[in-house]
Specification:
Elements (H helix, E strand, L loop, with lengths): L12 H17 L2 H13 L10 E3 L2 E4 L3 H8 L6 H13 L3 H12 L2
Antiparallel strand pairs: 1-2
Helix pairs in contact: 1-2, 1-3, 2-4, 3-5, 4-5
Length: about 110
C-alpha cells in the first residue's frame, strides 16, 4: 500500500492537519462570516489531502481524508442561510461520493 502523496510544500500531515482543523473551527466559531470563507474555499475546487481514509463515530466524521471533507463536516448542524447555500452548491457541483453524502446529511439536519 502506497503512502499518500505530500504536496510540494513538504506537507507534514499530522501537524498541518491539526492546524487546518483548528482554522476550520475558528471560522465556524465566527458564524456566518467564517462560513463564507469556508464557502469560498469549497467553491474554489481546491483541496489538500490529509491521508487515504476516514473514520466515523455516531454519524460524524472523526478523521478526514482531505480539507474539503473536513470543511463540509464543519458545517454539520448549522442552520443559517450561508451553510444551507454552501451545502446546496456542493450537491450541484461535486461528483465525489463522500462530499455528496456530507452535503445531503447536513441539509437533512436543518
Amino acid at each position: 500500500r502506497s503512502q499518500p502523496k505530500k504536496d510540494p510544500e513538504n506537507f507534514e500531515r499530522d501537524t498541518d492537519t491539526a492546524k487546518y482543523l483548528g482554522l476550520l473551527q475558528q471560522l465556524r466559531d465566527q458564524g456566518e462570516e467564517g462560513e463564507k470563507a469556508i464557502q469560498e474555499f469549497l467553491r474554489s475546487g481546491e483541496d489538500i489531502r490529509f491521508g487515504d481514509g476516514y473514520s466515523m463515530s455516531n454519524g460524524r466524521l472523526t478523521t478526514f481524508p482531505s480539507l474539503r471533507i473536513a470543511a463540509l463536516e464543519s458545517l454539520f448542524n448549522l442552520k443559517d442561510p450561508v451553510a444551507m447555500e454552501t451545502n446546496t452548491e456542493v450537491l450541484r457541483q461535486t461528483s465525489d461520493g463522500m462530499e455528496l453524502w456530507l452535503a445531503s446529511r447536513n441539509l437533512e439536519k436543518i
